[in-house]
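Regression test case RT-17, inverse folding.

Input:
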C-alpha cells in the first residue's frame, strides 16, 4: 500500500469525533447556526473607488504644489477622471443596497466619501472657471 495508511476502527471513531467537534465549533461562531453575514460586494468596490480617488487627489495637489500651480491640461483630465470615478463609486454604493442579507456599512461609507470627493472636485472646477 503506497501512500495509504491502514486505518483501524479506533482511527475512524477519532476522525468522526474530530469532524463532529469541528462542526460544533463552527456552529458556535455563527448566530443561531446561520452563516456569517458579509459586507456587500459592491459596497466594498465603492470604498475601493474612494481610496483610489483620495490617492489621485493627493497626487494631483502635491504635483500642483511642487510646480507652483503651473500644471498642464493632463492634471485637469485626471480631475475629470476622479469626478467620473466618484460618480461610479456612488452608483456602486447604491447598487450595493440591493444585495440581500449583507452588511451595508461599506455602501454607506462609500457613498458618503465619494459624494464628498465629487463635491470638492466640482467646487475646485467651478472656482477655477471664475
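Golden output:
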Amino acid at each position: 500500500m503506497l501512500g495509504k495508511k491502514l486505518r483501524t476502527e479506533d482511527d475512524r471513531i477519532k476522525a468522526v469525533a474530530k469532524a463532529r467537534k469541528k462542526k460544533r465549533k463552527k456552529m458556535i461562531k455563527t448566530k443561531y447556526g446561520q452563516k456569517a453575514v458579509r459586507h456587500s460586494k459592491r459596497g466594498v468596490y465603492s470604498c475601493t473607488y474612494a481610496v483610489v480617488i483620495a490617492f489621485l487627489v493627493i497626487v494631483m495637489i502635491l504635483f500642483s504644489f511642487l510646480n507652483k500651480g503651473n500644471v498642464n491640461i493632463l492634471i485637469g483630465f485626471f480631475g475629470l477622471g476622479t469626478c467620473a470615478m466618484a460618480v461610479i463609486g456612488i452608483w456602486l454604493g447604491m447598487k450595493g443596497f440591493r444585495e440581500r442579507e449583507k452588511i451595508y456599512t461599506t455602501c454607506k461609507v462609500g457613498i458618503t466619501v465619494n459624494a464628498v470627493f465629487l463635491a470638492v472636485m466640482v467646487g475646485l472646477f467651478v472656482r477655477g472657471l471664475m
